[in-house]
Amino acid sequence: MTIVTPPPTADAPWPVGLLAAKVRDWIDRLGTAWVEGEITQWNSSGGNVYGKLKDLEQDATVSFSIWSSVRGKIPDDLKQGDRVIAAIKPNYWVKGGSLTMQVFDMRHVGLGDLLERLERLRRQLASEGLFDPARKRRLPFLPQCIGLVTGKDSDAEKDVLRNAQLRWPSVRFKTIHTAVQGERMPSEVTAAVKALDADPEVDVIIVARGGGDFQNLLGFSDEGLLRAAAAATTPIVSAIGHEADRPLLDEVADLRASTPTDAAKRVVPDVGEELLRVQQARGRMAGRLTHLINGEIDRLGQIRSRPVLARPQTLLDIRADELLRYVARSEELLRRAIERAGVRVSELAAQLRALSPESTLRRGYSIAQLPSGAVLRDSSEAPPDTPLLLTLASGSLDTVSRGPRTDGASDGAPTPAR
Predict the structure, then answer these.
(1) Is there a contact between 145 and 173 (Cβ–Cβ < 8 Å)?
(2) Is 185 exposed, middle or buried (0-12, 13-18, 19+ CB in 10 A)?
(3) Which pLDDT band holds residue 413 (cuts at 50, 70, 90)?
């Protein structure tokens, strides 16, 4: 006999336990159902799996649990992004008031639509060179102003600001708050990246989000956002999620950081580390300089210990003796050269005197010249009454020719002066 419970009223309400029991009983009547969807979250813990399954067409998602007793019966290669069918039984936990979907079986159907679309976009952008390491820009050593794109009051924003300011307190930020999931997220993040890229004060841009499941990170693989990041002239750091989360923005960005904290550490240098590095460099330079100076001092000491520098007068004495010898030798050579030259001059003078017409004139001869100045060489050149100039050994005379003689004087012989 079935007992019919009267409907609850304000005067006769149901106890919470009764309502919970009725909900449990009603859900239990649904039994096990096969459903199809795409895995958007897959986390293993203690042998159990906790995840989410998304409808292939509608915006509907359910959470599921796979206990360790069932885990060994399903394929080992199931992962986020796979399209599957699953035998699910809804369970209502009366004590906690929560609804869970327990999986009893799960099978592959094919590559999920989202993953397939992302893979096509990945191949297209890779073929265009947007993932090429050669196009990635180097981050500035010490950015004066950092552009930050993140959710308002998010843990990611706090992590970036706190860690950056701990490392370099004077660093400045220009933060633009945007949606970090949902339909508005791609357009808002794209606009923020473009605005910060156009700001001349911004040296580097960080796009940060504190992780999330595969579905929540889809906006960071939006084609418009990826192309805006690739076209930016300011270096971009992608700090989205954790190590297992890899949206396509990670591939296009100039640097991928595993977490927002990691982004702050890689963008901003640590002031303590830099001061220590400067001190170490100064210490090395001082050591090298001291070693160099000590080496030069030792070398100067060695040079000064040499005899020539220990008693410089020795070098002067040696050079003075050499100079005296050279002077004496040069005087002797010069004297000999002068003597030989004097002898030679005497010999040439004697030869000159022997060959000089003056010596002939001194023996009593003279030179007869015609009025034209020509030397008279033949008596026929001086007919009677021809004026002649007679040059003697001392002085000259004017005379007149009386014509050729017929007393047998030989032609060409000097004519004694008369």
Answers:
(1) yes
(2) buried
(3) very low
Q: What is the pLDDT of residues 161-198, one digit of tens each?
A: 999 999 998 899 999 999 988 778 899 999 999 999 99
* CATH number, span 117-268: 3.40.50.261
Q: Are 100 and 229 contacting, i.e. CB atoms less than 8 angstroms apart? A: no
Paired tokens of 293? 């100076």
Q: Measured between alpha carbons, how far is 88 from 65 in angstroms, rounded to an integer?
A: 9
CB of 83 closer than 8 Å to CB of 117: no
For residue 303, what pLDDT band results from cuts at 50, 70 and 90? confident
pLDDT at 330: 92
| DSSP states along 160-229 | HHHHHHHH-TT-EEEEEE--SSSTTHHHHHHHHHHHHHH-TT--EEEEEE----TTTTGGGG-HHHHHHH
Amino acid, res. 291: H
Q: Tokens 């508005």 belong to which residue? A: 184
- 16-111 is a CATH 2.40.50.140 domain: yes
- For residue 257, give both structure tokens: 């950081």
- The length of the chain in residues reads 418
* Neighbouring C-beta atoms of residue 55, cutoff 10 Å: 13
Query: Beta-carbon neighbour count of residue 306 at 10 Å?
Result: 9
Indicate the residue type of 205. Answer: I
User: Could you state, in order of their start, the residue ranges of all structural domains in the chain?
Assistant: 16-111, 117-268, 360-403
- Report the pLDDT averaged over residues 110-125: 77
Phi-psi region of 97 (alpha: psi -120 to 50; beta: other; left: phi over 0): left
State the pairing for strand pair 396-400/82-93: unpaired
Q: How far apart are the first and last CA of the chain?
A: 202
Cβ neighbours, 10 Å, residue 27: 14
**What one-character-per-residue DSSP string does 278-307 give?**
HHHHHHHHHHHHHHHHHHHHHHHHHHHTSH
Show the beta-strand stretches assigned E in 315-413. 365-369, 387-391, 396-400
Alpha helices for 50-112 (secondary structure H):
68-71
List, in sequence order, every beta strand (DSSP E) within 27-157.
33-45, 48-54, 61-66, 82-93, 98-111, 145-150
What are the tens digits of pLDDT across the range 318-333? 788 889 999 999 999 9
Q: How far is CA 333 from the centre of its chain?
A: 71
Q: pTM to 2 decimals? A: 0.50
In sequence order, what are the beta bridge partners of 83? 38, 110
Average per-residue pLDDT for the chain: 86
